[in-house]
Each structure stands twice: as C-alpha cells, then as structure tokens.
Amino acid sequence: MAILKSERFLQCESPACSRQRRSWRAWLDPVRGLSLDGHWYCSPGCFEQALAFAIGQSLPGTAQPAPVHRVPLGLLMLSRGLVDNEQLKKALKAQKDSGSGRVGEWLRHIGAVSEEQVTQMLGLQWSIPVFPINQSRQYLECANLIPFPLLELAEMLPVHHIRSSQTLYMAFVDRINYTALYSVEKMLACHTEPCLALQSQVIQALKELRSRHHPVQVPDDGISDPSEMANTILTHAVRLGAADVRVSGFGGLIWARILTTSGYTDILFHAHSIRPEILLPLESTQ
C-alpha cells in the first residue's frame, strides 16, 4: 500500500488503536494506512477489525426495511377502469388457489390487462416513472458499475447514468428494492433514482449482459464468518495496493469493492453458503 504524506498526521478511526497511545516520536514512523468507506485506519489490524464489524452489520437479518403501505394494485386498476369486479375476483382467486404470483401477473394471465398496463399502474402505485428500455441501450455502458450477480439477484438494471451529477437511474420490475439502492449509492458514491421497466425488457437486457459481464473467479477456500471475510478482503487489498475499500450487502450477498489508482476489484460473498466470488479487476473505473 502506498504511504501518503498526510497519513502520518491522520487520526485512526479505531477506538482500540494502540498507535493513538504511542509517543510523539512514533508518529514520525512511516504509516501504511487504509480507508474503509472513507474512514482511515492506520494498520492492517485496525482496518481488519473495522471491516469485520462492517460485514457483520451487512449480513442478512441485521436490519429490516420498514413496511411500505400502498393502494393495492388490483384496486388501483379497478378504479381506473382497466378491469372490472369479475376479472379482479377471478385473478385474486387464482392467486389464492396457487399460493403464489402477484395480482398483476394473474390479471395478465386471464387476459384482462397487458404487461404495459400493469407496469404503468405499478409506476402510478409507486409514484415513479416507467423507463423505456427498448428505446435506450445505455444500460450496456453502465452495467459494469454493479456486479452482474447483484443485478440478476434483485432483477434490476442501471439504465441511465448522468456523470455530471453522479446520478444513476435504476430500473426495477414490480417493486423498488430500497436496500439495493442504498447499497449501490454507498458503493458507487452516487445518487440513485428508481424507476420501473417492463419485466420482459429487463429480462432480455439481463440475458444480453450475462454474456458481456466481467468474468467471475470462485476460489476453492471456504469462508465461515465475517472475520474470515475481512481477512480475505484485506489480503487482496494489500496485494493490489488499495487506496480505499467499501463494503455493503443485500439479498444474502456481501459486496466489497477494492479501489486502486487504476480501477477496482469487486468481491462477492454468499452470506449463507459463504463462498467468495472474486471479480477480476477492471482496468479503469466506470
């Protein structure tokens, strides 16, 4: 890791840091620090401890999003005259009998509404716009901003990136995954704006990206807890000469990004199977 001139005078953010209690002469010694989510740590030990804690905070079950109450989609469609009482009752019964699926899917299944109508009503329900993916292929330019497994997991797609304001528009199919949006904002240091898109168009775009996304390596060694995850990330950070590391997670995955002067390397950990997937470093940041 490179030693920055200013690092000698930075304050380590670890409350257990022994360097803070050293004599003034010790402060003249070279310091090989590393940043985690913008917070500086003076040594691998301080950094690894903070990283393990951050990973633990990102594990499934550590935080639950607050429930969002909205007008039921079926009632919204009924009020707009898109379906009648009989069609809605038929769709709700089919949903209940099957024990799965959303009412919009069942209304489409019985031929009461089209995919476009369902998506438009979902946009009205969530008070967000519907993005026409078939009219813009910018997702090909900004898809590498986020590891493909995360896009596939959340069935989401980055569809428009405004570099001047660092705003990224993320398209979802039927509901907004705010945990995923927060994770993307934190990892990319950008502002996200949610929108909806036709499911068929999102699926087709993801299918296209599957053959284009950055290759993934899966190492053989198993990882069993946040401390081991942190050690794996630290090992790669030291080897790559990292300037900063960011970590977040959603949907049972832990996402770490190791930033260097030439680009970044993403590491994904499956929180349940606990096997890391390391994405090869990109030559330059997006």
Describe the fold and architecture:
The protein folds into three domains: 5-62 and 218-279, no CATH class; 73-126; 133-210, GMP Synthetase, Chain A, domain 3 (2-Layer Sandwich), CATH 3.30.300.160. The chain is 36% helix and 18% strand. It has ten helices and ten strands. A seven-stranded mixed beta sheet has the order 2-1-7-8-9-10-6, sandwiched between helices. It has a three-stranded mixed beta sheet with strand order 3-4-5. Strand 9 and strand 10 form a beta hairpin.
How do you describe this structure in short?
This protein has 286 residues and is α+β, with helices and mostly antiparallel strands. The chain is built from 10 helices and 10 strands. It has 3 domains: 120 residues, no CATH class; 54 residues; 78 residues, 2-Layer Sandwich (GMP Synthetase, Chain A, domain 3).
Keywords, separated by commas or semicolons:
disordered N terminus, 3 domains, 36% helix, single chain, 7-stranded mixed β-sheet, elongated, 3-stranded mixed β-sheet, alpha+beta, GMP Synthetase, Chain A, domain 3, 286 residues
**Overall mean pLDDT:** 83
Largest sheet, described in full?
7 strands, mixed
The low-pLDDT segments are 1-5, 22-31
N-C termini distance: 23 Å
* Helical proportion, percent range: 25-40%
- Reading the helices and strands in chain order gives EEHHHHHHHEEHEHEHEEEE
Radius of gyration, in Å, reads 23 Å
Number of strands: 10
Total number of distinct structural domains? 3
Q: Assembly state here?
A: single chain
Number of helices: 10
Question: Going across the major beta sheet, what is the strand order?
Answer: 2-1-7-8-9-10-6
